[in-house]
Amino acid sequence: MSHSTTTLPESATIVLQGKGVSRGVVIGRAVLFGGIGFEVPHYLIESSQTQAEIARFKTALSQVQAELQDIQKKLPPTAPTELASLIAVHGLLVADPLLIDTVCRVITDKLCNAEWALHTSGNAWLKQFDSMQDDYLKERAADINQVIERVIRQLTGSQNKALNSLGTAAQLQSTIVVAHDISPADMMSVRETHIAGFVADLGGPTSHTAIVARSMDIPAVLGTGNAHALIQDQDLLVVDGDNDVVVINPSPQILRYYQERDRQSRQDKAYFYSRKDDPTITLDGQSIVVKGNIEAPEEAAEVLRFGGQGIGLFRTEFLFLGNRQKLPSEQEQYEAYAHVLKTVGQKYPVTIRTLDIGADKNLDGEPVNAVNPALGLRAIRYCLAHPEIFMTQLKALLRAAVFGNLKILVPMIAHFHEVQAVKNLLRQAAQELQEQGIEHNANVQLGAMVEIPAIAIAIDGFLQQLDFVSIGTNDLIQYTLAIDRVDNNVSHLYDPLHPAVLSLLHKVIQAGTKANKSVSICGEMAGDYMFTRLLLALGLKEFSLNASGIPEIKHIIRQTHVGVSRSKVAAVLNYGKRIELDKNGLVQNILHV
């Protein structure tokens, strides 16, 4: 990604180019958070002080470990699931014996303070990671750097000062956080201060910073390269997530322009919301279903409030991301699932995804051994390897099914035998409930996530065994293009418009239509208005997205003539070319790959 700094002609206003990862415009005052190359104290100690200095270092480690555990336990249900695993990885790094022993040895040998010992030891580690060929291992350097910075800030006492200052500022005015980079734990702490926008030197559309910004529904521009160096505390900023720019100290003319943009945006949102319950029918008469994604039972009511036509994805991980020895009981799970089904009622379906955990999203207390977590023992692979956990969930789901129209969705399916194994376990769960005399409903639909290219390519065979499928575009794009979507080094290659991705989407959607099986998209493409018309042209009839975005997506669907868009998209599918979309999501150009 290229970074550039430009100056608007009528003033000395500076405009930074980046990547808008969360839409919208916000005007506010800058608050700098963290920093790159922040000053680390360096002083010598007496040999008699080494044990005290080591003790101070270990105390700081314990405090950081406690902070990370507390943040993880207090993650709100709306927090993206990726963050729990990222925070857990940081907790493991803080407790790494090699890091601890190395720093203690430097303190003893060099007779220096703990901050400097950690700083120098960390730099040596980072150089080793930078020299590695494996992209995934190289990406861990960012985690190490963030952990080291957090511990140093704990040692110097600056960590809490920064958060307290930010919290105070956010109470007094519209506040925009400006950072070089920020750890997952810090991002969740910042989230609690109710900031209005976010700007960072690093990061892209798939980074944890972007994920949190979108979950908070605040504008964010990342990958600016040098925002943290150019922006000063209390500078007036405009964060334009729609046009990938950050405006520093806008001129009166520019400020008026963005104030009008902000006013118009608020007016549009109010209009979309006023029509949230109108029929979702395209200009050429196609009826489309728009559902909501949730991560906690109480969010179901929000989906209905925003006009959602059911729950398209209930992520159940939030129930499990606690202590490994205190997994949610069958009764606890039953109550959570039943709450959602009761809230929605018989009018709309509720799709609940089975546990998607493992590898980088491990339960507390389980070791992280996978070299490449994205391809490891996760989701259905994890569940089939731990049938005692999976059976408890399946029994809870069948019990809750008596209250509504339940659809069970299984993630990470790649093999036919996995589908058969789930069916066998469902039959076993129903039989056990029957024998126990417990009320349940075994007549539920079974579906699979399409997030591995293997199932997309062989979709016709899978649809013979399934009642429906839901496309998880985030992972499908990642696996199709061989890109780790949380790796900043390659995130710019994450391309939803790649012809291979669009061909797979089209193949799955058309196969579902032919087999008379429902196909939905629940990944981030479904909630991005830029892709709405394109997905309709590919034949999609069911969207599932975050509740707050439902009114706008329904509005765009009502303004779309599917037939007009379909002819242009056909050229892409037939000739393997790439498309460009204009700002309204309409096909603008057809390009070579």
3D structure, described in words:
With 593 residues, this protein is of the alpha/beta class. The protein has 22 helices and 19 strands. The strands form 3 sheets. The chain has a 9-stranded mixed β-sheet. Strand 18 (578-581) and strand 19 form a beta hairpin. The chain starts with a strand and ends with a strand. The model is unreliable at 1-11 (pLDDT under 50).
Question: Percent of residues in helical segments?
Answer: 40-55%
Query: Overall 3D geometry?
Result: globular
Strand order of the largest sheet: 1-2-9-8-4-5-6-7-3
Unreliable segments of 5+ consecutive residues = 1-11
Structural class: alpha/beta
Q: Give the N-terminus to C-terminus distance in angstroms.
A: 18 Å
Strand content: 15-25%
Number of DSSP strand runs: 19
Question: How large, in whole angstroms, is the Cα Rg?
Answer: 25 Å
Largest sheet, strands/sense/barrel: 9 strands, mixed
Mean pLDDT: 84
Number of alpha- plus pi-helical segments: 22
